Amino acid sequence: MMMFMWDEKDVVYYESIAHAVRGVFAICNYGAYIFCDLGKKVNDRLCCLCSLFVLLFFHLVTFSWPFLPENVHSYNGTLVNSSKGCDISQLNWCEDMTRVNIWVYYIAISSCIGIAFSNINITMNTLFSHIIGPRMQSKQQGMLEMFGGFGRMLGPLLIGFMYTNNGPRVIWLVEMGEIVLMIALWLFFYRRLVPLKMPADDAWTDRESTESEGRQQNGKQSLTGSVT
After folding, report:
1. What is the reported pLDDT for 202?
2. Basic and acidic residues bias located where (predicted)?
């Protein structure tokens, strides 16, 4: 990893640990919903909104701010045979890239991502299902999964392109912009993100009875007209 001057073996090792810790946070969070019935104790809208703020917080504390005291290690790949650090012969943004504290980064990515993603996964899907209401949801759920699939397909390609040409700062800025946009939209539509309320059964029964009586009356009139 360029930021912490690791080779491929170190990256695989430490990233595996970070993924495992994130998994523990996510499992504990899912377990709270399963065994403690957390879904009945939290507001889905507010929980999802707070999780978006947690994601924004993660990006803010792990951003490569220009005022950070230490720069990443850079080298010239045409002169030095090395795989640790940032190769200025291939990446023109290396010299200005500051280094994020390793402890801040991995504590934040393990806790913030592990908790926020699992909360969003539960609350957003639950709320989406409630908003659609007690009717066929295959089309809406299919569209949700389709756009999620597009994101998982195109995201790595776009991130790789931006990383090569602009570095991690631009990636962080784009992601923060997306999160801020989602927060703004969530706040704007907050009052509308509620379960669909269907008319009461009595109202439906009265309406159907009235329509049935009307059809019967029209049928009698038509029959009388035909006999006449």
Report:
1. 46
2. 205-214
Interatomic CA distance for residues 30 and 33, integer angstroms: 5
H or E stretch at 193 = none
Token pair recorded at residue 33: 């919903």
Whole-number pLDDT of residue 207: 54
pLDDT at 186: 95
Q: Which among 5, 26, 188 has a CA at the least distance from the CA of 122?
A: 26
Q: In the numeric block, which tokens belong to residue 25?
A: 């946070």
State residue 78 phi and psi, 5-degree precision: -80, -15
Distance of CA 228 to the CA centre of its chain: 69
Cβ atoms of residues 70 and 27 within 8 Å: no
Tokens for 134?
């007690």
Cα angle value 167/171/177 (rounded, 5°): 145
Rounded Cα distance between 131 and 144, Å, is 13
Q: Give pLDDT tens digits for 136-158.
A: 888 888 998 999 899 999 999 99
Q: Which residue ranges of the chain lie beneath pLDDT 70?
A: 200-228
What counts of helices (H) and strands (E) characterise the chain? 6, 2
Where does 39-167 have alpha helices with state H? 44-61, 102-132, 138-166
Give percent helix, percent strand, percent coil of the chain, each to the nearest 5.
70, 5, 25
CA–CA distance, 222 with 105 (Å, rounded to integer): 79
Residue 98, beta-bridge partner list: 71
| pLDDT tens per residue across span 169-187 | 999 999 999 999 999 999 9
